[in-house]
Amino acid sequence: GESVGLHLPTLSVQEGDNSIINCAYSNSASDYFIWYKQESGKGPQFIIDIRSNMDKRQGQRVTVLLNKTVKHLSLQIAATQPGDSAVYFCAENTGGATNKLIFGTGTLLAVQP
Amino acid sequence: EPEVTQTPSHQVTQMGQEVILRCVPISNHLYFYWYRQILGQKVEFLVSFYNNEISEKSEIFDDQFSVERPDGSNFTLKIRSTKLEDSAMYFCASTDRFEQYFGPGTRLTVT
After folding, report:
1. Highest-confidence range of A53-57, A93-97, B36-40, by mean pLDDT?
2. Most buried one in A65, B20, B84, B111, CB count within 10 A?
3. Distance between CA atoms of A57 and A47, rounded to whole angstroms?
């Protein structure tokens, strides 16, 4: 069946360091990928997205890389700050009429001061 | 900035009771969704809704679940006879095309 999974359940980094969160997906038909940030007690918050015709996209302090050959997605956060501490989910959108999202299991990012 | 809102933030109910979770999507959005997240687990798709009808539903969305858009602003999820395993966070989301905006969620506790 289709699935999106994460390699690391917890990532601990020092403030100021760069963070890399990884995700593997299994549905080769997926054409749109999103990273969400979820803080405790809140809903998922959109961070950045990428379409399958791209391999890299940059935002403010964040970069998403897509490797379709190995079905791998990563989120890079530059100069990680305490406010970045949260659970990060990758999600894939297989398109079609509904654009439903299939979420990965989440990675907890803990930023140490 | 427009946002998705949900009420209540926390709902406690007894097994077998009916609950209605409410959402107000972003006003110009046309696609609406419900997802749920059991504590410590990933977010799971329940149902999508477009043009006043369900466009897709997951295996979780059985006959105990229903959705409705009773007016031009609200979007509701009803669980007819709650079970213990329905305890979870329920998130509403909306979009005008691809980027889905999520509400803060309703924590449903079934006792």
Report:
1. A53-57
2. A65
3. 12
pLDDT of residue A4: 55
What is the DSSP pairing of strand A56-58 with strand A62-67?
Answer: antiparallel
Q: Is the pLDDT of residue A3 over 70?
A: no
Taking any CB pair shorter than 8 Å as contact, residues of chain B touching chain A are: 4, 31, 33, 35, 41-45, 48, 50, 55-56, 91, 95, 97-105
Burial class (CB in 10 A: 0-12, 13-18, 19+), A33: buried
Burial (0-12, 13-18, 19+ Cβ within 10 Å), A59:
exposed
* Residue to substitute from B97, B98, B101, interface A, most A β-carbons within 10 A: B98
Min distance B78 CA to chain A CA atoms (Å): 20
Say which of B41, B97, B101 has its CB closest to residue A46.
B101
Cα B58 versus chain centre, distance: 13
Angstrom distance (rounded) from CA B101 to CA B56: 18
Interchain pair B42, A105: CB under 8 A: yes
Please determine, for residue A22, whether its predicted confidence score (pLDDT) is greater than 80: yes
